[in-house]
Amino acid sequence: MKAVSGDLLLEDIAGSIKANSVSGNVEVVRADKGAGCESVSGDVEVQNVNGDVYLKTVSGEISAAQVKRSMEAETVSGDVELDGITEGKKVDAKSLSSEVRYNRGDIYSDGRYNNPIAEISTASSRAIPSDRSIDGQRHT
C-alpha cells in the first residue's frame, strides 16, 4: 500500500503488510504476519502485530505496541516508543536526535536489544537481569 500525500490506516490484515507514505502518517492495527511501514515525513504506528516488524521514518515519531516477534525501528528526528514487544529475540531501535523508550517487553538471555539512544524503562517494576544483553549508548 502506498500514498504520496495523506495518511494510511490499515486494520485487520490477514497476512503481512507493507505500507509507505511520502508525506503522511502510517498506522497498522492488527496484522497476522508482520508489518513493514515507512514514511518520509509522518508518524509510524503499529499495534497488535504477530510477526516481525520494521518501521522507519525520517521526520516523525514511531510507536509500536503488542508486537509478537522481532522489532526494528529507525527515525532521524522523532521519539521511538516500544511497548509490549514479546517473543522476539531482536529489538533494534534508533533515533538520531530523540529518545528511545522500551517498555514492558521480553528480554531473552540469548536475545539482542540495541538502542543507540536508549532509555530502557523498568516502569513495569521489572529490572533487566544481569545475564541479558542490552546495548545502550547516547550519541551527542
Q: Mind explaining what this structure looks like?
A:
- By secondary structure, the protein is mostly beta strands.
- The chain has one domain.
- The protein is globular and about 45 Å long.
Brief summary:
With 140 residues, this protein is mainly β. It is 0% helix and 61% strand. It is built from no helices and 15 strands.
Question: What features would you highlight for this structure?
Answer:
disordered C terminus; mainly beta; 15 strands; 0% helix
- Biggest sheet strand line-up: 1-3-5-7-9-11-13-15
Order of helix and strand elements from N to C terminus? EEEEEEEEEEEEEEE
Overall pLDDT metric: 82
Q: Please report the number of helical segments.
A: 0
Radius of gyration, in Å, reads 14 Å
Main sheet specs:
8 strands, parallel
Low-confidence stretches: 116-140
SS strand fraction: over 45%
How many β-strand runs? 15
Which percent bin holds the helix content? under 10%
Instruction: Give the class from helix and strand content and strand pairing.
Output: mainly beta
N/C terminus separation: 36 Å
Number of domains: 1
What does the overall shape look like?
globular
